[in-house]
Amino acid sequence: MTHDFFMKEALKQAKIAFEKDEVPVGAVLVVNGQIVSKGYNQVELLHDSTAHAEMLALTGAYANFGAKYIPEATLYVTVEPCLMCAGALRWGKIKTIVFGAYDEKNGASHFCEVNPYHEKAEVIGGILEQDCAQLMKDFFKGKRK
Q1: Distance of alpha carbon 133 from its chain centroid, rounded?
Q2: For tag attachment on the chain, is the N or C end more exposed, with fewer CB atoms within 10 Å?
Q3: What is the pLDDT of residues 6-53, one digit of tens each?
Q4: DSSP string covering 13-57, please?
């Protein structure tokens, strides 16, 4: 399986968020080539500012594994994680973080002079960047009419 394959799965989650009038961010957590957890933004639905796609995918995976660390996992998320999500990924010791669109306003890398993720984590940005960014643009374009 490729990064594109799993990012397309994360995009499916983001499209669910879009349809539910949530900011369209989706995530999938992968271990040994298998999706073990999925999430999409549910901030409005749950009235919870922490209900980001990454957080929900992590929570699902922790429950599935009965563990608080998943160092063999790769997280695919359609938009660069925010500082809160980067912290959660750090604490979970997630091995690889792959994201689609860069977030110039809220992305964790724009708030930190040092790596906000786990020191052993590999971070890969720009996977299916255009598709991920377009979904965000379409969502906010509809909001600003």
Answers
A1: 13
A2: C
A3: 999 999 999 999 999 999 999 999 999 999 999 999 999 999 999 999
A4: HHHHHHHTTS---EEEEEETTEEEEEEE--HHHHT-TT--HHHHH
Tokens of 16: 């669910």
Distance in angstroms (rounded) separating the CA atoms of residues 107 and 105: 6
Contacts of 47 (CB under 8 A, 6+ apart): none
Other CB atoms closer than 10 Å to residue 62's CB: what's the count?
16
Q: Compute the distance between CA of residue 98 and CA of residue 77 in angstroms, rounded to an integer.
A: 6
H or E segment and range at residue 99: strand 96-101
Sign, CA dihedral 85-126-69-5, equals positive
Query: Rounded to the nearest 5°, which phi and psi values hold at 27?
Result: -145, 150
Provide the annotated active-site residues: 54
pTM: 0.93
